[in-house]
Write a sequence for this structure.
């Protein structure tokens, strides 16, 4: 059964064509995607991971590939706290940018820095563009955007730039132990 809000026709047109089934299988069995699948299973979740023909490195790309509103895309962004290299994962709706001043103020730190690719990979085990909300090498301090609760179904990266999975705000909250917060307008 398809999740509510999932438009199969739009999605099927944008998934890999039949002659690229080997690509679909290769991505589906990619070690990072398997890690995400296993982490979700630990939380009692088993969503069908969708493989897109085009990259889903940005919320706009993912929304276009799935035929959904950009706000339904859960972007997993890594920041650093203050002047440290301590990572902070922010799960945000694709409908707006993270207001780093607002989040820093709410967390009681001087500022948030944007983590570089090395910090992102070290903290999450994923490359930028495929960062999943789950399956990190160690637990991460996580903030979840309250705006994601506006949607019945949201889509998150599944460890690869072409892999995404459907979930809900409540499932994200439960599987990440995130702190809920307004992160942008």
């Amino acid at each position: 059964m398809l999740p509510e809000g999932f438009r199969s026709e739009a999605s099927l047109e944008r998934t890999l064509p039949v002659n690229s089934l080997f690509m679909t299988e290769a991505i589906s069995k990619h070690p990072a995607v398997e890690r995400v699948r296993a982490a979700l299973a630990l939380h009692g979740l088993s969503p069908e991971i969708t493989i897109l023909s085009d990259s889903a490195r940005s919320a706009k790309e993912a929304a276009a590939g799935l035929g959904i509103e950009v706000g339904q895309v859960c972007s997993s962004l890594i920041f650093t706290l203050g002047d440290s290299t301590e990572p902070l994962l922010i799960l945000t709706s694709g409908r707006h940018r993270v207001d780093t001043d607002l989040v820093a103020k709410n967390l009681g730190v001087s500022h948030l820095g944007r983590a570089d690719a090395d910090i992102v990979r070290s903290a999450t085990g994923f490359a930028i563009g495929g960062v999943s909300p789950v399956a990190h090498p160690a637990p991460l301090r996580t903030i979840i955007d309250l705006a994601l609760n506006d949607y019945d179904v949201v889509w998150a990266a599944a460890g690869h730039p072409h892999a995404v999975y459907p979930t809900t705000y409540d499932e994200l909250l439960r599987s990440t132990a995130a702190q809920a917060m307004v992160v942008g307008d």
